From TrEMBL:
Organism field: Capsella rubella
Region (Disordered): 1-25
Compositional bias annotation for Polar residues: 1-12
Biased composition (Basic residues): 16-25
Lineage top rank: taxon: Eukaryota
InterPro entries: DC-UbP/UBTD2_N, DC-UbP/UBTD2_N_sf, UBTD1/2
Pfam families: UBD
Protein name: DC-UbP/UBTD2 N-terminal domain-containing protein
């Protein structure tokens, strides 16, 4: 039985399936190295935004995996997916986890490194 508003009990029993984020453009052209630096900085500081470290670790693993593996990771970690592109998620205790698009996919305006 669960609450009528819970993820598992939405009438048909469906759970939100994750998908790749829509194409996006960084504010300025960015190199692969710059993108990787942004990602590392985010993941290094993410636990300081609140929530549980093990959920942050699961979200990082999901962000770096292909879609089918990412789905298995979030399902097994008990992550409640608000936005199907993983930009907004919750844990079972209700803590909110927001992921920037740059950790989930690559921008359309990459430039070659010199």
């Amino acid at each position: 039985m669960g609450c009528a508003g819970s993820t598992q009990s939405q009438g048909d029993g469906s759970v939100k399936k994750i998908r790749k984020p829509k194409p996006w453009k960084h504010t300025q052209p960015i190199t692969k190295a710059e993108l990787m630096k942004l990602r590392e900085e985010f993941w290094d500081t993410a636990p300081h935004y609140g929530g549980r470290k093990e959920i942050w670790d699961a979200l990082r693993a999901a962000a770096e995996a292909d879609i089918s593996l990412a789905q298995a990771i979030v399902d097994s970690a008990g992550v409640i997916v608000q936005n199907t592109d993983l930009t907004v998620c919750y844990d079972e205790r209700g803590a909110k986890y927001e992921l920037p698009k740059y950790v989930l996919s690559e921008p359309t305006n990459f430039v070659e490194e010199n």
